[in-house]
Amino acid sequence: MTNETQTLDLEAVGRYLTQHLQGFSGPLSARKFETGQSNPTFLLMTPERNYVLRRKPPGTLLKSAHAVDREFRVQKALAGTDVPVAKMHLLCEDDSVIGSMFYIMEHMDGRNFNDPTMPDVTNDGRGAVIDDMNRVLAALHMVDIEAVGLSDYGPPGSYFQRQVERWSKQYRASETDPVPAMNELMRLLVERMPEEDGQRTLVHGDYRLDNMIFEKGGTGCLAVLDWELSTIGHPFADLASVIMQWQMPPGREGRGLAGVDRQALGLPSDAEFIARYCERRGLPEIENFGFYLSFCFFRMAAIIQGVLKRALDGNASNPERAMKIGQYVPVFADHGLRALSE
């Protein structure tokens, strides 16, 4: 049986795009991107131009997960703001076309950094890339959600309470082996929830360097990708997500900066990145940052538990990689506990 997350019915896609996408003409070929564990993503190639297709995976899915229609909506809404996004071409909600909902967007011809040490970039270039990452993050959190039509994009109330409840349920629904550290982390996050401070912004939900496309010959961000976890929430979750990623081991697997001499590479420290962000947004020093960091480790542990479960069930986007990253659930839970204690 063919794994539908690895292949596309190109004939069906071609027919649909011929009817619905202005300017489209074949012949059409496709290549699956290695990234995109949650929603399978394909490069569509034609003689005239390239596109990107992002689809909901087939099979039985967790409720509210893989919402490609939300991804499409938020990126379409952000067109023309200071947050760079790819152009959205069309959303197909008819599952009968290829077996699940999908959308078509512009293919951004730039460069993507899977390794934040950016070995092929100069020190000045590295610093400039990370500073633009910081600029875009601040811009995202200053988007006027009413003006862009996203005021209803997330429910009211405590973002962190809602998220901890949601991801605890998702984790339980995809749990395989017991992870004591995860149980303790879920308990402590509820116990140490900070009071609401009135900040309610658009949040990306998985903001990190490898979810961004940069200019080929420069350091400016062309587009932020992978908006599946976006909602209206608390901006410090996105900021902490960046810091969380940097605490991982270096290299393409961990994609972090743990143990790296950042100054020697022209990269900012965690404190410098946070201070620059606060400066851009006109905020005072952030208190209780350990909670926000812990929350991000918890959420990532829950996400990769879901990836592992899909691999075991046979409908993961990249089964081999899914099995590998699924082993990191206890590691992320341990990091989450450490962040709370520090």
Automatic annotation (TrEMBL):
Domain Aminoglycoside phosphotransferase: 30-253
Gene3D superfamilies to which the protein is assigned, alphabetical: 3.90.1200.10, Phosphorylase Kinase, domain 1 (3.30.200.20)
InterPro entries recorded: ACAD10-like, ACAD10_11_N, Aminoglycoside_PTrfase, Kinase-like_dom_sf
Protein name: Phosphotransferase family protein
Organism expressing this protein natively: Sedimentitalea todarodis
Name of one Pfam family that matches: APH
